[in-house]
Amino acid sequence: MKDEIITLAHGSGARLTQQLIAEIFAPHFHLPALTDSVAIGHNLVVTTDAHVVKPIFFPGGDIGKLSVTGTVNDIAVSGAQPLYLLATFIIEEGFPISDLKKIVASMQEAALEAGVKIIAGDTKVVEKHNAEGIYITTTGIGTLPLDLHLGTDKIKNGDLIIVNGNIGDHTIAIINARNELDLQPPPRSDCAPLNGLIACMLPAADLHFMRDATRGGVATILNEVFEDNGLGIIIDEASLPISAATLAVSNLLGLEPLYMANEGVIVTFAAADTTGLIPAMKKHRYGKNAALIGKVTSDVKGVFLRTTIGSLRPLPMLHSDPLPRIC
Amino acid sequence: MAKSDLVRIKYLIEDLWQWKKPVRIMEVCGSHTMVIGKYGIRSLLPPSIELISGPGCPVCVTPASFIDALLTLKNVTIATFGDLIRVPGINGTLEQARAAGLDVRIVYSPLEALKIASTRETVFAGIGFETTIPGIAHTLLEAQRLKLHNFSVLPAFKTIPPALKALLSTDNIAIDGFILPGHVSVITGSAAYQFLVDDFHTGGVIAGFEPITLLQTIKDIISQLKRGIPMIENAYKEVVSIQGNIPAQNIIRKVLQPEDAYWRGLGKIPASGLGIKEEFAQFNAIRKYDLQITETEMPSGCRCGDVLKGFIKPPQCPLFATTCHPAHPLGPCMVSSEGSCAAYYKYER
Lengths: 327, 349
What we know:
CATH architecture of the domain at 64-160 and 245-288 in chain B: 3-Layer(aba) Sandwich
Oligomer: heterodimer
Order of helices and strands of chain B: HEHEHEHEHEHEHEHHEHEHEEHHHH
Number of domains of chain A: 2
Structural class of chain A: alpha+beta
Helix content of chain A: 25-40%
Structural class of chain B: alpha/beta
């Protein structure tokens, strides 16, 4: 790698993260595919996810809830039913026990909602200043129905691309909380376990592929799909579900919601003749703003956005986190 | 977008396609560059109308020596606007320095830097144009009022009108009209651009940031060219007045004074910068830490200067998308998302 040291950009989920995995990890590990979770044996699915977030408490969630929902969602988007979690805590010396209690209670609440059990864990305490507050890693285990296979290889020309809710809200909530922008009312993270919603979606349509749009956002997933199977994608800007607050703050800071991390948004590719999926999603509390945002098409090579004024522009994969602009 | 707007956009585009004579229109402001890219506006225009991106990206024109000066600081916290952290100095970027241990924090407002200064020695990276300068000047007044001893600003402020003057004074420059900045003009007022007409016989239109406004602005500039009478028009009257924001101008005058400034890619432009006045010297990081900001050599082969002057489009630079790309920007125009090259790379490659 050209950069000799790790920078924050390597953890952005964009191109530099891909490079890190491909050049540093993949040659030494057995990584069958770069997906959210991996199947082992007949029908077991596992995944693991480290959670570092600043601030650790934010409107709509906290690091505890995030550590459960993030892993639950990574399992669930494969079509599997998440069942068990293992949790590892790295805690900085001096961290208030009262905060830890809140975090653990929040994990329990999220696990209860998702119907998973936290069955084992580990705790390490590091010296003051050797970590910041608390980091939580969770590993999830789920079971996959034997007849179900979702993957980018199943995506076909004409497939519909659907999201379940507003994009960008989590990132805006974090930016607001971290930088004390003092937006009123404070924007809330969309952080939520989505396995319930996905369970409603599976019988409602012929689903081909799902992914939760965390780091890198919706646009990065679409690019990964294109890189996997070479099928073109056109997203319709006017159809994107984005809250007025998120849109306003994004415009102010020069950030694009399509590249923002979410914690409760899944991107779904469904068969072209799908009809009942969005109505089914809208019945679920985490699918109220479900929308058809685009299609797989042979008209373009790459990922493109049909803008609100009708022009077509590329929606490329970014090299690293987008930076807020000065003016 | 309302249906009536879409219809109007359609008519505007049809109208622009009637124009056959080649013209070059410069959008001065980086945010306009972004809107043009984001809405794919170039793809809607006839080949006769060429949009070129000017020097209005504050991060892009900040000289490498400014970054290098920040990198020499020890035991301080550097507070900065986000897009500065990947701007390359000769000795690296703030992002790399942060990974190596320098305390670099991204802030959204200079007042956030004052909060940081309540607990640690803090230097704010003072870049920007008329838009951001009043807020930073206000922050300096606050620092004085609070009698802070551990806060300073490294100034590399720049003003737009002298840059346009320098640009139009360049040999062989061929700019037929300007899309003038919206936010900057809120502060300066439209009168600040009259010299474009009086001294250089070149007109311009102050524009807002909606795609429809930009298309209308391009049409207005074409209309000026048709009539052969250049003038300064204001298509952003909701917020831009003739005289500008007088209180903001007063704050700037109280704290800062004009001085020569180095623009990355353009070189030294007389009286195009704003330095910190003597009575605020204690908050001037140049004085406090004995720093120097000088002109620095451009990376070999980099043609950002020619891009900023509108002589070439980004893809005509030999480094574009080969050795220079957003992950490893060599020239300033690739660094910021609103830089000309980055906008081209992202939207029009």
